[in-house]
Description:
Elements: H1 8-17, H2 22-29, H3 33-43, H4 50-61, H5 74-118, H6 120-130, H7 138-147, H8 149-173, H9 185-198
Helix pairs in contact: 1-5, 2-3, 4-5, 5-8, 6-7
Amino acid sequence: MNIKQPDWEAIERAYRAGALSIRTIAERNGISDTAIRKKAKAAGWERDLSEQVRKEVRNKLVRGEVREDQCANPERDAEIIEEAAEEGATVVRSHRRDIRKATNLANLLMDDLLNTIQRREEIEDEIERETAGDESGFRRSSMLAAVALPSNAKTLFQLSSAMKNLQVLERTAFGLDEKEKSADADELSSLIDELSKDA
């Protein structure tokens, strides 16, 4: 029985790109992370391209070009950077779409709340008419509570919190508040692993 040999070239590219954790690379290739660490040590691989990958992700998002002059082996490194950056850019674009959808939904809910508040008296009168024949006042009180000021205030607070979170996410996804800072490969790997879990 033949045992499938690991694709060490693909593993090297993923390892050096620094976009995925070593554990994730191992899982995708059906080997242990210890085996990858041993091979990397023996072959002298370094996770030295994570900063270039992050820059290329940003460049892809604004249609820029990678600076190959920072690479030790421009052709090989550029290929690794391109592959990892494409994956990162795809994740960010997907998150941008999701954030836009959630923002649109929150805006619709805010409009609905405004409409309810503006028509509260009319809605309360309709509830009184609808429940006039009820023997129990439970249905009436439940319906009135749903449009009452405390309920509306709670809904407004929840929507405001959601909007605040969505605005932070949107500004982050579009790089509006991003400050240039260096991060080591493990930080970048952890970030992209988290994004991959959410995607």
